[in-house]
Amino acid sequence: MGHTRLGRIAKSRKWSAVVEIVAGEGTSSTSQRTIIDDVTLIAAETLKAAEAGLDKATDDPGIKFTFYMLTQLVLAARKDNWKENLAKIGIQINETSTFFELNAEFQKAVDRYIFEHYRVTDINEIAIKSAGEALTSIADKIQINLFGNKSDELKSAIRNLSTVKGFADLGQKFFGLFMTRYLNFYLSRITAAKTGTARIHQLGDLTTFNRELQTHCEQSARIVHDFCGQWYSKTEYKEGINFDNSSKFLFIALKKLQAELKQQRAET
């Protein structure tokens, strides 16, 4: 199967505006600041320029399946025979499996299914990496040993993510990381070209900017935090979570986050 990529940056006025902001061109006030000072503005303008691609991303089967698998992973931990239920969705673990191995199996299962049933795209690769990082960050937050746990401790840790709050935290992290990676897919080409300029003195500045961009996107994803938890709980109780209803939720959640970043642009 081929790999569908997001494509090159279009030479449009919108992208020219992003380049100008990153380079500090256009206004004297901007030129006196580093890009770290303008994370919110840069994120908003990058989203504006890449909006068409994000609209298409909401319909990408890969991101839909990745999010669906996140729901199935945490739901499996509610059941007594959780290893058997994980096996049904392609995740193989045993009594000695660590969180790191579980996460790796999760990502392999998603990757394998997408490769076999859909077309591999940049969007689904971004989604898979975001899901894996989201799981790891939440594990670190609740102090799971990534490289050594008993099976029942591992199950208990994942089960914590199947509560309203647990899934709300996981959802916010996933959507925040996805938006970070999506924006940086485009933005990194511009920032790399501008490293060594007055706005980006050295690679350390770029690293700091990327970290601040992630923080900004994750904080912006707070808009979907409660929405994730409430949807997860109500949907599982009323009808059960499946690919179709999780895909519909994903679409709405991404639109909510997109609208939040647009609002920030209007306020900047």
The total number of structural domains is: 2
- Sheet of most strands: 2 strands, parallel
Mean pLDDT: 81
Report helical residue fraction. over 70%
Q: In DSSP terms, counting alpha (H) and pi (I) runs of 4 or more, how many helices?
A: 13
Give the C-alpha Rg: 20 Å
Based on Cα principal axes, name the global outline: globular
User: What is the ordering of alpha helices and beta strands?
Assistant: EHHHHHHHEHHHHHH
- Class from helix and strand fractions: mainly alpha
What is the spatial order of strands in the main beta sheet?
1-2
Q: Approximately how much beta-strand content do the residues carry?
A: under 5%
How far the N terminus sits from the C terminus, by CA atoms, comes to 43 Å
Poorly predicted runs are 1-5, 27-31
The total of beta strands comes to 2
